[in-house]
Every structure is written in C-alpha cells, then in structure tokens.
Specification:
Radius of gyration: 19 Å
CATH class of the largest domain: Alpha Beta
Distance between the termini: 42 Å
Number of helices: 12
Bound molecules: 3-methylmercaptopropionate-CoA (MMPA-CoA)
CATH superfamily of the largest domain: 2-enoyl-CoA Hydratase, Chain A, domain 1
CATH topology of the largest domain: 2-enoyl-CoA Hydratase, Chain A, domain 1
Number of strands: 8
Largest sheet: 6 strands, mixed
Strand order of the largest sheet: 1-2-3-4-6-8
Strand content: 5-15%
Structural class: alpha/beta
Helix content: 40-55%
Length: 256
Amino acid sequence: MAFVEYSIEDGIARLTLTRPDKRNAMNDQMLADLEVAVDQAASEALAVVICGEGDHFCAGLDLAEHSLKTAIEGIDGSRNWHRVFQKIRGGRIPYFAALHGAVIGGGLELASVAHVRVADRTAFFALPEGQRGIFVGGGGSVHTSRIMGVPLMTDMMLTGRVLDVDEARQANIVTYVTPAGEALAKATELAKKAATNAPLSNYAVINALPRIRDSGYDEGLFFESMIAAFTQTTPEAHERLRAFLEKRAARIAPKE
Ligand code: 1HE
C-alpha cells in the first residue's frame, strides 16, 4: 500500500495515513489503500486505531486531484468515500481515531466515522469547503453534523471557523484530549479496553446506537429491547454475567 501502513499487535490493528509531504491529503489511491487496510482489520482485529504520520492527521480531500474531476466523477468519488467509510462506521469492530495537527475537511469526515476520537493539544479542526468552492463529500453532512450539530457545522463551513481541541471537546467532536504527542498511546489504550468486551456487545454499540438515534422514540425503545434480549442470551453473556456474580470479574473502581 502506497499511502496507508497496516500493522497489528495483540488484536489491535493500526492504520497510519502515510503521505506526510502532502499533509496526508486523501487522494483516490489513499482511499483504495484505506479500504484494503480496513478489510484486513475486519478479518483479524478486535479493534482499530487510525492515525496520521507527520505533523498532521489529514488535510482532507486531495484538492489537486479533485480539481480535475467532472461532476459525475465527483459523484462517483464521493460515493466511493461513503462506501469505504461505511465499512469503518458500520463494521464489526470499533475504530479509535488518534488526532493531531490538521483535522480538516475530509480528514474530519474520516475522524467522524471512527467510534471514539482522541486529540492531542496540537489538533485543530476546520471545514473550509466554502472557501474552496466545494461541499463536504465524505459523509460529513450526515455523520459530522450528528456529532457537532448543524449550527456549529454551518458556522464552520460558512465562516471558515477553526476549532482548537478545547472547543472540539466541548462540541463532542473528541471525547479525550491529551498532551502533544500522546493521542496515539491513549487511543491504543482505549482500543485495548474495547477489545476485551464481548464482540457482540461491541457490534451492537456500533451498529444499533446510531440507528436507534435516527429512529423514532417508540421504535428506538422497541429496537433497544430486542438488541438487549439478543445480546444477553448469548453463551458469552451468560459466562460474563456468571463471572461477575461469582466474583471472578474485575470490579469497577472509582475514578482516581
Ligand atoms: C495538499 C492539501 C490538500 C496540503 N490537497 N494538497 N483541505 C484544505 O483546504 C486544507 C488545505 N491544507 C492546508 O490548509 C495546509 O496544507 C495545512 C494547514 C494542512 C498544513 O499547512 P503546512 O504549512 O504545514 O503545509 P503546506 O505547505 O500548506 O502543504 C504542504 C504540501 O501539501 C503542499 O504541497 P507542495 O507540493 O507544495 O509541497 C500542499 O499543496 C499539500 N497539501 N493539503 C492537496 N488538501 C470528500 S470531500 C472533502 C472536502 C475537503 O476535504 S475540503 C478541505 C480540503
């Protein structure tokens, strides 16, 4: 793979965007490489960390390549981002994004399909599509807007507003902030924790929560009961519940 490096250790896959000279801008080849890495992770990993090489996570869509496309090629390109990103967002295993430096445009859209986002203090977030004369195309109007809300996303897209990590934390774009250089270690630590969960519970969290959030109130509650009954009647759930009752499972300690 030219622009994505794949590695796996103890069931945790690491996907690194490796195009630092172009600030990890996403071109068609990088997206294709990302899909190969995502498929590989799906076949063998319990959780995934996604990060970027160099000083930035991802500067978004490769504008040089994009500017040469016709309208129909642009549609195909955007639908391709959706297809690959859906494998991340709606797969079986959780993704943890380790963010630093620029998390811009398509980079923020990519981060938005991860399930947990960790940023270090160097991270900054922007959606300069308005300035570039384009629109989000990597699913941001659906995913990113659900995370930060339409008002803030509209502000960022209209005014070019840049968010720092504290603002991003406040807007739930990230749920962890680390000192500079420590996002990857934190994201990996979290991925390791999630990897010890029952895989079916992880699947339900990833795939049921967003659907329930998008459904009606009554349908959501009904769907929740179905998923809850399904997961809790599996042999793995029985064993995990028994382990707790027989005092073989770790207790939850108060936060230090
Ligand atoms: C790029 C890209 C890119 C850098 N496409 N080549 N994204 C943007 O509008 C963000 C544009 N990038 C930037 O604002 C800056 O590059 C950064 C803040 C990310 C980094 O700044 P800096 O000073 O470290 O780097 P640089 O000198 O600006 O860029 C280094 C090289 O990377 C340079 O190429 P070079 O051949 O002159 O060395 C840049 O041209 C190249 N580069 N970013 C192509 N994005 C699915 S739709 C999503 C829509 C969007 O993503 S819109 C947002 C696009």
